[in-house]
Amino acid sequence: MAVKRIAALVLALALFFSCASAAQAGNTRETKGYIALSFDDGPSGEITQQLLDGLAQRNVHATFFLCGYRIAQYPELAQRMAEDGHELGLHSDRHDYMQHMTKQEALEDLTECMGKLTEATGVTARLFRPPGGLYSADLLEASKELGLSVIFWSVDPHDWDKNQAAQVLPYLLSHTQAGDIVLMHDLTEHSVSCALSFIDTMCARGFEFCTVSELAALSGTSLSPGVYYNRFPH
To answer: Of the CATH numbers 3.20.20.70, 3.40.50.300, 3.20.20.370, 2.60.120.380, which one belongs to the domain with range 29-229?
Structure first.
């Protein structure tokens, strides 16, 4: 337990300067808490490139849940994500809803997606987010067998819905708290713009951003395969 507390403290110190806004000279305010920003459905070409550029400029790391067929389309973007220090997880091979799959079907789908990710990046995934957040006991068993923790979310601004575009940023800013996992998508320029504005505003408020696994560690949570999580209060 003492080792876990020490590890969390070391991680917190390392993350303290992860936001450019919070690292300005003379700014010594106390951090209000940590948030994990996650993106589904990518990589998606130029939109993902814009997002990665914006995250790099802000020295912020996110967690990306990638689809296998998208990795095959844009392996160089998946590789850049890994090289930039982002966390990579699985989001199914072809974005099929998986709650009605048998365990064997789920194993085949996830293994295919995992293979594409490893081939493109050298990364072995440890996280999985099922499309739509839909799951079953068989899917959890398949995830466990493959060593995958299942990650949901606690804040969803529906950034994919064009009819709610004007509400995305206000929703994020009014609903996000320390320990939240935020769900977004790197599919449109509007989503990217909202994500970067969200980062800037929350950093100005004193929050910091980290990956899902880092957020879990900060809360003292050890992620287990086949178990699902949606936030990590700390």
So the answer is: 3.20.20.370
